[in-house]
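Limitations
The structure tokens in this dataset are predictions for the assembled complex, not deposited experimental models. Users should treat interface geometry with appropriate caution, especially where small molecules or nucleic acid strands are included. An illustrative entry is reproduced here so readers can see what is and is not provided.
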Amino acid sequence: MQSPDEKIYTVTALTRLIKYTLEESFPSIWVEGEISNYIHHSSGHRYLSLKDENATIKLTIWRSVGQYLKFEPEDGMKVRAFGDISLYEKGGNYQLNVKKLIPVGVGELEIAFRQLYEKLSAEGLFDLSRKKPIPLYPMKVGIITSPTGAAIRDIIQIARRRNDLVQLILYPAQVQGKGAELSIIAGIDYFNQREDIDVIIAGRGGGSLEDLWVFNEEALVRAIAGSRKPIATGIGHEVDTTLSDLASDLRAPTPSAAAELVIWDKQAYISGLHEYLERLSHGFSSLLEVKKGGLNLLISRPIFRCPENIILSRVQYLDNLERRFATVGKILFEKQKNGLSLALSRLESLSPLAILKRGYAVVKSFPAGLTVKSISAISKDDMIEALLSDGSLLARVESTSNNKEMK
Amino acid sequence: MTSKKNNKDFESALSRLEEITDKLESGEVTLEESIEFYTEGMEIAAFCAKMLTEAEKKITILKEMNGKLAEVPIDEHKGGENQ
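Predicted assembly:
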């Protein structure tokens, strides 16, 4: 039973009392546990629980705090949260308002690195196909680093040793600390605007993970990937890999190595030239030898040894031709000649003299000399001349008779 | 910025020299071509020699002057803080 002098609280009063006691008892404490039910709300605030084997506590990360988080919390991640316990009167529950959140076991920068790597990698920012070729013989190299660092000193030394033709232009940048990425990005923008710059080297000497962190800042990594001019990076020591290295066109393990790779060796170039010239001279003279050998071979051939042969053979050919022509002509001539005598003999056989030789006579009137073809043209006592093959005779006609009387 | 030398000059000079050397060494060229190649090679060599001796080493640092960045010769002795 309730005694009359016992105090009765209103819900609000009790809640306020609990709130006061709770918040006073746990000002700014660290709590460690595993994240569950993580929600990154569109308002920018983050809500999550921390739990261990036996208990759970709710955490809130307001946007004003969350925007400075280097990594994105994930369920199952072990973290230490620093903040104040506060009680929410309306809901009757309590929570830890987070002011700091750090990962346990793995460093927060490592997580941040992995997360940004995964994000940019998915975007294809590190793809080999994006990489621009570094020119073989750059004449002007833009350097982005600290003007007082070890990196620029090393680069100058290497340039001095390798090639006095290559011009270096230093864009003095801040390479660590808050906002350093903006200074490096400004350098990239500057050199991209200058037409005469062939290639950019960005980097810095060794340092702690925090010192090098600027080269993992998203804005800088994007600026490197987006640069129109090729960029070589040399950041920290060999063991250090930054996202800037992965996004650049050429990743050198150190600034010195970047200089060695970008600044071409003048002496090696000259040696290369000499080698080609020697090969060219040698190639030329051996080619001459070959051509000369070919010429010797050519002039040792019979045609050049006895050039008159070509004429003699032509003369012979001509003689031969002539002989053949003469033979053929003779044959043809003989043939013609034979034909002619045949024709003559045929002609001869048709001659009246030949007929006379066979015993015929031609009778002509005398002295008129007209050929007598009919007895009607002649009378008794007319004189006729009979032509025989070897002469003629004169006769007197005794009588005439026609063919009927003769029968 | 006054330099007329160009990174492409060095590259094309060497690659042309390589090309004509390879051709000449292959032996598959006429005498006339070989003379042309040899002459061209000598011209390239002379051109390169000229480019290579026109050394004008410059190391500059950008400094803001009247709101604009200007190149000034670097003071190398100031470099070297371990950063």
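Some entries come with short summary sentences. For this one: Chain A touches chain B through 50 residues (CB under 8 Å).
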